Structures are given as C-alpha cells and as structure tokens.
Here is the input.
Amino acid sequence: MPEAAIRKRPQQISAHVPRTLTEALDPAWLTTVLAGFSGGRVVSGVETVEVIRTVATKVRFTVTFEGGESGAFCLKGLLDVDETTARGGPTCVLEADFYGRIAPTVDLTVPDCVATVIDREGRQAVTVMLDLIGQGATFCSALDSFSADDAVLSLGQLAQLHARSDLLEGADWIRPRVSQLAEMTYVTPETLQELLDGPRGDGLSRQVRSAPRLIAGIRALAARDGQCPQFLVHGDAHAGNVFRLGGGMGLIDWQLLQRGGWALDVAYHVNAVLCVDVAEAEERRLLGEYLSMMRGHGLAMPCDEEAWRQYREAAIYGYYLWAITRRVDPPIIATFVDRLGKAVTRHESHALLGI
Here is the structure.
C-alpha cells in the first residue's frame, strides 16, 4: 500500500448515484466515474466477478478500456434496496468522506479509493476502490482463526487511526455515534428483547439478555464516553472488517466512523476478533500493547488501571451493535453476540456503569 503522505485523494465525481446494480455497472456511467483513473478512456466492457449483499452491496468487477487495457475494481453502495434500507444512505456518504478527507492523511492500510460519487442532498453515495483481492488480500471473518499476535497487528492499525485525532478539529461531520445509538428509536425494547431471546442469545445469562438493561447500559456508556477525550474511532472494527495483505493487516468499512473514547474500538475489537478463552487470557496484555503504541505516537493515555476500567465499561458498545444486527448471516451474528456478551458478563460492564 502507498504511504499515507503520498496516497492520492480519490476523484469526487459529479454524477448520478446509482440505485441499482445494473446502473452501477453501466459502461457509460463507469467511463465518467473512472475518468480520473483511466485518463479519460472509454469503458468498452464490464464483467462482474462477485456480488456481496449485506446492508450495502459490494460488487467486484473488471472493466476493459478502449485500447484493450483492463482494471479490477470494487464498488460499494446501497443498490437494489427497499425504501427503509435506503435511509441508511448517510453512512455511505460518511464512508465516501472518509476516503476523500481522512484516508489520504493517515498512515493506515486501507483500500486504494479511486472515486467517490456523493449526492449530499439525496444523502446517498457510492465508493469505487481498487480490488483488494486482486492485489492478493484475504478478508477475515468471525469464523476464521484469529490469534492474539494477529490482534497486535490489527490494534496497530487502530492506534494509527486514533493517533490522528487532531483531524477531529473542525470536522463536525464526524459525530459521536454511541450517543446516537443511545437515543435511537427504530429498534424498540420489545424488538431487541425478541432478538436476544432468539438463538443469538443462547449461552448468555438472563441478565445480559435483558433488553432494558442493555439499553440502560448503552445510555450510561454514552454519557460517560461524552466526557472522555475524543478520538477518531473506526466504530465497527470486528473481524469481518479486517483484511490481511503482505504480512500485515488493514481495515475496511468506514460507515460507522465516529468520534468517541478509544476504548469503544479497543474493547469491541479484541472481544470480537478473538474467541472467548483467548480474549480472557490475553486481553490485559493486548490492552498494554495498545497503550504502548499510543504513547509511542506521543499521546497521553490513562494509567493502566484507569484504562482497564474504561475498557471493561466499553464492552457494552460492541455487544449492543451486534444485539440489534439483523441483515448479516445468523452464524456470524451468533458468534459475535456470544463473544461480546460474554465479555460484558466477564467484565461486569453493567455494574461499572451503575446499572
């Protein structure tokens, strides 16, 4: 990957934001969007390689330009979705803005973004990147093996991000997501309880499966987090948003980019990427590794015991995110809810937050 200092800013294209996969793969539309990358050459052919649909659609594809040269890309956006899902468009705008405003200035391993297409009035966007898999990258998932040594590498990426929290100054578009979660109404207590009473909650205690307690916990965490020093936070650093490339690791999926306490990322990440017994045995050491990295970047961090308390409280954040998740394969949801719910149990997160 190129160094952050020389990573090019993607072209921000004034074009229609596609709403369907057919529109997104239209050669004429791609000719406009890829003009800055291709030098204005016409796209003469498009071939779909893979389509991955969760909430957003990720489509890997190749294009052939006039003259015979080809390129491999990945496009991400809300394609072929219903009206309710389309309301999530602001998260796609947030991700496009990350690639346009933040990624070129931070020393992170992320996909090379070649273009963003943003409709700010309509609150929709798509992002076009070079295809990582074509570059030899492999993506992690909740069901992959992830060691504590792997976690040191991925925590290094989070530390690089957190260390550039000076970028928050004047960046009002990066908001405190945890407080928004605490105030949201689209997942009712009744719906949340129904989800927790399903298979995803198997193996967790009745107290941790309580929707009212979880809602009270995320609200208490939001109140405390708002009083902490604010960092540039990924917000969704589970294993599925990590990739391996060239012996290192990188991060994808910036739709929950936010400002907040460092522990939101670290507690969520450690307990999502590691199985429960490894997390329990290694998390204190991993927290120490992260704190050392941050101090090495010149940041003042809390003492080890205060950091441990913040880490234990913050476990509720990741648990809440996965407790409310619906549009992901059930085995992945169940894995993350189990790991994060058991972290909340182990750390007595509710009690630390006064719940």
About this structure: The mean pLDDT is 94. The chain has 14 helices and eleven strands.
